[in-house]
Fold this protein.
Amino acid sequence: MNNNKKEMAVAALQNGIVIDHIPCSSLFKVVNLLGLDTLESNVTIGNNFDSGSMGKKGFIKIADIELPEETLNRIAVIAPNAVINIIRDYEVVNKHFVTLPDDLINIVHCNNPKCISNNEPMRTHFHVIDREKTTLKCHYCERTVAHDQITLK
């Protein structure tokens, strides 16, 4: 046995999804967004793995599950370069690049304390005004929220 191994393998996934290329600073935001703490499926979370394009990255592997495209695209709010790999019989059968939807309903919290969405029982609603920088605008109070100010509901 070679004791000079420089990397450890993560168990292969027979069926499920792998969310890859998540910025390390956003990994646990994605975990919370997807509600992974309530799943009964096997979940593997990796953080600070070497990445040629990102330097360091995070990933999430979820066994025996499919998530709707709308749910996966919500990841784009906090990880705009994430890649979703659909796995069947240990093979990647589909690679999906997340896209930021035009409108975000009940995903992001408005950081304006006077906004009606913070004072009445209603869903939040944001329009995407800059996809590249992930800049949002509240539908109700029109407050602009930059990527680093986004708080998920």
